[in-house]
Amino acid sequence: MTTSNELSRCVAQFDPQALPVTAAQAIVRQWATPVSTVERVSLADALDRVLAEDIVSPIDVPAYDNSAMDGYAFDGAALAAANDGSVTLAVAGKALAGHPFADHVTAAQCVRVMTGALMPAGCDTVVPQEQVEAASDGQSVRFAAAALKSGANRRRAGEDLARGAPALRAGRIVRASDLGLLASLGIGEVAVRRRLRVAFFSTGDELRSIGQPLEPGCVYDSNRYTLLAMLRRLNVDAIDLGVVRDEPAALEKALLAAAASADVILTSGGVSVGEADLTKQLSRALGDVAFWSLAMRPGRPMAFGRVWSGGRAGAGDPALFFGLPGNPVAVMVTFYQIVRDALLIMAGATLQPAPVLHASSAVSIRKRPGRTEFQRGTARRNADGRWQVAPTGSQGSGVLSSMSEANCFIVLAHDQPDVDAGDTVEIMLFDGLI
Ligand code: AMP
Ligand code: MG
């Protein structure tokens, strides 16, 4: 079992006031272990689930050689034998998709075929119908030999997937094309990991839920909706535990309930310096929790560790705990940059690196070395096909509209200094990430 000592040792080698983002990501990944329960679901329910086993193709796809075109199937040897450069063949019959031609075809014959039709016995080549001249009685066709190679316009059995070949790997998050692929193999059910359960709540005496009056000094709780949405996109089981007051007893109750019901707990608020004491005392008492000051903007303060449903380390069920900052943009940035990979690992998924592009900065950007910044940006492609990006409006960590307006993060690396207009920067497009 990993203890709090181990967690603090992981962090000890870094400046506690400025834990680099890459170090935090590595620590979090190390603590994330996949759920082990596997269940079988029908294909129609498998979208966005994580495969628990490799899928090996039980058949050849396609299962038989077939025509790739509407045309005439024949023995390709006739091409080499063509004397005046053209081939004339008698039409012996026809084959449609699902309606094969039953007889053997001789060297002097061909068969009218439609796309997908089984290649008749004795045929290995298809001449497209556009290339033939049919006799007026329809009994024979003529075409130029030069335009074709033997074996042309034939799809081979197993060309898409050969029997015994791995079609999809364990850890794959099932996409639309995968459902089709599995169906093409005749597979109606797959083994997937059980869905990860993630409980979340907001903390803060100033928070009001939608429908409540907004007294002076209060704000509506938006983080819960952002978190819910981000969790849904990852197809986890999201358990909304509401708003919890800044009160030790209420926080303790919520954390214990969350640890009992979920694999992961996400909270927002209450981890910043000055305010954090409450959460700090509590989550230390409930498990192994470290308080980080990340070298990151937005999203500096964060708590990470384990909370046990029994109220102390080792008692009851553990849950991985992420105490996110309260500021709405900081919540989203820490979720995508720190939490997301841990959730995917725990769900059993094989991590795919987030898509990163290079773009030219339209303006100069101030950047302090010694922290990673995730500025909200609007990227577009210029007429020359290159990406250009500019930060969106106010970059305050409470300004959620900057996130709504943006279509990417501008990722300014730890050691990077100020950016000049025209410099190349890395961007992470939200599409594909979110
Ligand atoms: P905290 O991290 O608790 O100090 O909160 C930092 C800032 O984020 C404060 O202005 C809070 O009012 C705001 N905040 C905290 N939680 C939420 C929430 N759930 N929804 C919207 N704003 C929040
Ligand atoms: Mg607060």
UniProtKB/TrEMBL annotation:
Its EC number(s): 2.10.1.1
One GO cellular component term noted in the UniProt record for this chain: cytosol
Cofactor(s) named in the record: Mg(2+)
Domain MoaB/Mog residue range list: 199-345
GO MF term (any one): metal ion binding
Alphabetical UniProt keywords: Magnesium, Metal-binding, Molybdenum, Molybdenum cofactor biosynthesis, Transferase
UniProt KW Cytoplasm keyword: no
Top EC category: transferase
Record's catalysed reaction(s): adenylyl-molybdopterin + molybdate = Mo-molybdopterin + AMP + H(+)
Annotated metabolic or biological route of this protein: Cofactor biosynthesis; molybdopterin biosynthesis
Cited function: Catalyzes the insertion of molybdate into adenylated molybdopterin with the concomitant release of AMP.
Protein family (similarity comment): Belongs to the MoeA family.
Protein name: Molybdopterin molybdenumtransferase
Name of the gene: moeA_1
